[in-house]
TrEMBL record:
It holds the Pfam family DUF4232. This is DUF4232 domain-containing protein. Keywords: Signal. Residues 101-228 form the DUF4232 domain. Residues 45-69, 78-91 have a biased composition (Gly residues). InterPro entries: DUF4232. The keyword Membrane does not apply. It comes from Streptomyces acidiscabies.
Length: 236
């Protein structure tokens, strides 16, 4: 009889434990709505990630805009620089077009310019640009006197001046110095003047406008000198 009571009690305890376990399981199952909450949080996190992506796009757009602006500005400035270089080239061409004053572009004449009783006589040679355009000239012209005893070449005297740009119709000058024949004799008769412009090989023959003769010297030739272009002056 006692054994039966113990058995029944054991069964009752087992049944109670079984019911408690089931209730706990159901409760856990009913409390499971927390899972949707987790899903909701995950969804919210995803939205945050999406927002971050949008922010990244904004940054990329800003970087692209900055780069484009800088490149265009640099290219524009570079183009202007190239134009300036072209202008410089035009300047060089303009200088080249002026050219040198040669025998074919000059009208060359000579006149007496001696001061009365001066022991050193002077003839001034005039070079006039007849070409119709500007040309440059500098240095010394070649000068030779034709005489009864042969040709006498003039020696250079003084320092050359800076190059002169001679406009059409403009003139420059240079002097020829020679000694007066005060010996009382016939001396060496002068028959003509030969002028060769600087940097040219063509010679222009002119009538001699000065004194008729040169003094005879022991060396066989009088001292004749030519001054630099654009320095016409009196003898000393």
């Amino acid at each position: 009889m006692r054994v039966q009571k113990l058995t029944i009690a054991a069964v009752a305890v087992a049944a109670g434990l079984s019911l408690t376990a089931c209730g706990s399981s159901d409760s856990t199952a009913k409390s499971d709505p927390s899972s949707p909450a987790s899903n909701s949080a995950a969804t919210t996190g995803g939205s945050g990630t999406s927002g971050s992506t949008t922010g990244g796009s904004g940054t990329a757009g800003s970087a692209t805009g900055g780069t484009g602006s800088g490149s265009n500005t640099s290219a524009t400035n570079g183009g202007s620089g190239s134009s300036g270089s072209t202008t410089g080239g035009s300047g060089s061409n303009s200088a080249a077009k002026s050219g040198r004053c040669g025998a074919d572009s000059l009208t060359i004449t000579a006149s007496d310019n001696t001061i009365k009783n001066d022991s050193t006589r002077t003839v001034v040679v005039t070079l006039k640009n007849k070409s119709g355009k500007s040309c440059t000239i500098s240095g010394f012209a070649g000068v030779d006197l034709k005489t009864s005893s042969g040709t006498i070449s003039a020696k250079r005297s003084g320092q050359p001046n800076a190059a002169t740009t001679l406009k059409s119709g403009a003139e420059v000058f240079f002097p020829v110095f020679y000694p007066a024949n005060d010996s009382g004799g016939s001396g060496v008769r002068i028959t003509g003047l030969l002028v060769t412009p600087p940097n040219d090989t063509r010679t222009v023959s002119l009538a001699w406008p000065g004194a008729a003769s040169l003094p005879v010297t022991e060396g066989g030739g009088a001292s004749v000198e030519v001054g630099p272009i654009d320095s016409a002056g009196q003898g000393s």
